[in-house]
Structure formats: structure tokens, C-alpha cells
Amino acid sequence: MVDKEPDFQPSEERNEWDMERIHELAGRLLPIYADVAAGRIDDPKIQRYLNELIGILHDLHPADMATVLESLPQQERVMVWKLSEPDEDGEVLLEVSDAVRETLIESMGQQELLAAIEDLDADELAELAPDLPKEVVHEALESLDAEERAQVVSALSYEEDEVGALMDFELVSIRADVTCEVVLRYLRRFESLPDHTDKIFVVDDDDVLQGVLPIRSLLVSDPEELVENVMSTDVVRFRPEDDVEEAAAAFERYDLVTAPVVDNNKKLIGRITVDEMLDVIREESEADMLNMAGLKEEEDLFAPIIDSFKNRWMWLVINLCTAFVASRVIGMFEGSIEKIVALAALMPIVAGIGGNSGNQTITMIVRSLAMGQLNLSQSGRLLRKELGVALLNGVIWGSVMGVVSYLLYGNIGIGLVMVAAMTLNLVLAATMGVLIPVVMEKFGRDPALGSSVLITAVTDSGGFMIFLGLATIFLL
């Protein structure tokens, strides 16, 4: 059977990480992988394909491996996962999306999971723990020393949107009363510094944070100078209860690489690093995109049909209801449409431009709220500004469409109704584009949640009502 399968040759020129080649090899091997793994197929050609795939996978960085896994259907994903480098499984699990991580963990046995996480730091283990089986977490904690176990338990005690959940416990601290030369000798004792170490934290005998010593300042300072004379006391610091999105905004605003985390007594308990904050920013951006489209959560691209259905159905039902309302609005004016057929051709224009303008406004407001650039006290001023923009756009583009409508149908009344309807619908779109996210933010909901669906519903129904209502009043 194997000999009858069409042959294909490995790429003569490829870089170490060729997505198309991985997909090709995985698709080729999947139907026969069980037989190959069991030794029931011993074909040199098939073995060559398998060796090539393994070679590519073992050369991948964990982040690249995560990208590969997210791009594969579930059966091929599990096969590729079993062929990957076992020593890096824990790092890959940290990199993949939550939805894909779930499928990978389900495919692993308890011992495989323990082997994957045994080399992870305390903060990394704490990040994975909520997705792991309880018995695996318990056994992993038992294998740690008392200090590491306390760190994991501490990180797990915080909510996922709090800084404490993302704390890194691996840091370097010194006292203020030593010289720079002593600090340099101390650093040389490390085999390697913790990742993203751009500063050393200065603490007193009780580990209370006194300041930070930037590495660049240490390198250019007089070796005999005391740390207290070189360190910076103006430090951006966080508490473990702080919101991670606010922390990420601070990292972006102040160009931070690392920042200390202190308790209520200003005692240094950990740090947060730029790589975690970049993940927060990316995840928040992705969540806003999904929420605006009415998706409840991040979805595995190759998730089972029923899982995707569960993720999408709610806002589709809401959209169906709003579309029904819009159809009933049109039904109210069937008589007007029968008498002036041009209305049927023109009314989608009014609704469409309103929806587009509303989405522009709501996207800008959601982004401003996410970036901390807008607070609720400014919403009135912003609403007045957006109404001004809507009026200007309505007058200009409404007039353009009014002239076009007159030229098409030879009826100045239709042209004037188009001007008025487009202007009023743009005003409605601007109003709702500001109010929808602001009201949701006020009530503690994600301002992006379903915002695109809601604004489209309002501008469609409102646009039809305004246009057909004006036409009925002034043209009949």
C-alpha cells in the first residue's frame, strides 16, 4: 500500500522553519503514523519523511513551535506534539494560546506533564497551573523546595488580571552601603543573570525597596562609589493587587524593561518583566478584536464544530433579533416603498454609511478606554466633538448623495431627504458610538463586547426609520 502512494521529494533549499513543509509532511504521515510508531511500516522513504519532520521540529524555537501547533488541525497537532523536543514541552505550553494548550494537555499523560514542567521556574509553573490536572499540580509542588513552593502558592493566590499572578521571583538585589566594585564582583558569581535584567534592586536589611541601580549606571560609575550615591530612588513600582493592563500601560509609557513588585510594607517580593507585559498587551488587543465581533473567547482555529458553535451563537442570535427589528421597520413603510420605488434602492446607502461611521467612532473610543486615554468624565466633551464630526460629514456627503439621487431620479425631494437622512443617521451613529462603550465601561463590562454588532443594529434600524419616515412625511 505504501509503494502506491505518490512520492514527493524534500525541499532542496529550505530554512530551518518552513511552515508549508511541516504541513506537507504532517499531512503525509498522519494516516500511517500509528503503524510507523509501532514498527509495522519500515519503508525507507517514509522513515526519511519522519526524520525530516523531526529534524525541523527539534530545531524550532519554542515560540515558533507554538505557532506551528496553532496552525495545524487537531489530529496532526497531536502527532507533531509527540514528535517535538520533550525538553522544551513546558516552554511551548507557555507560548501557545489557551485553546490550543487545552488540547495538548489532554493528549498528555501525567508523567509526560510532570516531565514537561519539571524545569519551569516558579512563576512559569504558576502560569500553567490553572490548566493542569490537580494531581499534576500537587505532585509538581511536592517536588519543589519550600521557597519555590511558597512562591507558586503566592502567585496562584492572585487573580489572573492582577500583577501578582505574573510576578517573576528571579531577581538580583543588593544593599545601598556597598561599592560598585563589590556589586560587580557579586554579579560575576552568577552563571547568568535573570532574563531582562536591566537594573539591580537596592533593598535594606528587611528587604524594603530603597531604589534601583541601572546596569548602565553601574558600568560607567567609579568602582569605589557607593551604591547609594549612584542608585535611582525615583522608581516605578507595583503592588501585586494592581491591574495588569494598567501595569502594561505603564511599561509602554515609561519604556520599562523590568519593574519591582512590593507589598504594603514596601518589601520587595518580585518583579514583572517586559515580555509578560507584551503578552498582556497582545492578549488585550486580541480580546478586543474578538469581543467587537461578538466572540466570547479566543477560539482554536481547528476546534470541533460544536465548540465553535458555542463560542459564536449568542451574538448571532442578538444579531438575528436586531435584523428582524430592522425588517419590521422596513415593513412599516411598505406602502411608501411601493409608491416610490427609489426608496428601496437608496435606503441601504443611509444605513451603510451610518454603520461605517459608527464603527469608526466606537473603535476609537474602545481603544482610548483600553489605553487609559479616556475617563468617563470626559465623555460629554468627546460626544460633542463626535457630533460635530458627524454633522460635517453628513452635510458634505449627504449633499453629494443628494445631488446623485436627484440626477438619478429627477426628484429634488428625494435628494433633500437623502441629505437629511444621512446627516441624522450619522449623528445617531456618533451618539451611540460614544455611549455604547462608555455605558458598558461604567457598569464594569468590557466596552468592546459586541460593540460592532450593537452599533450596526442601531444604525440599520435607525437609518431605515429616519430615511423612510422622512420620505413618507415629505414626499407622499
From TrEMBL:
Acts as a magnesium transporter. InterPro entries: CBS_dom (IPR000644), CBS_dom_sf (IPR046342), Mg_transptr_MgtE_intracell_dom (IPR006668), MgtE_N_sf (IPR038076), MgtE_transporter (IPR006669), SLC41_membr_dom (IPR006667), SLC41_membr_dom_sf (IPR036739). Pfam families: CBS, MgtE, MgtE_N. It is a multi-pass membrane protein. This is Magnesium transporter MgtE. Belongs to the SLC41A transporter family. Its main location: membrane. Keywords: CBS domain, Cell membrane, Magnesium, Membrane, Metal-binding, Transmembrane, Transmembrane helix, Transport. Homodimer. Residues 167-228, 231-289 form the CBS domain. PROSITE patterns: CBS. The chain crosses the membrane at residues 313-333, 345-366, 387-408, 414-440, 452-475. It is found in: Cell membrane; Membrane.
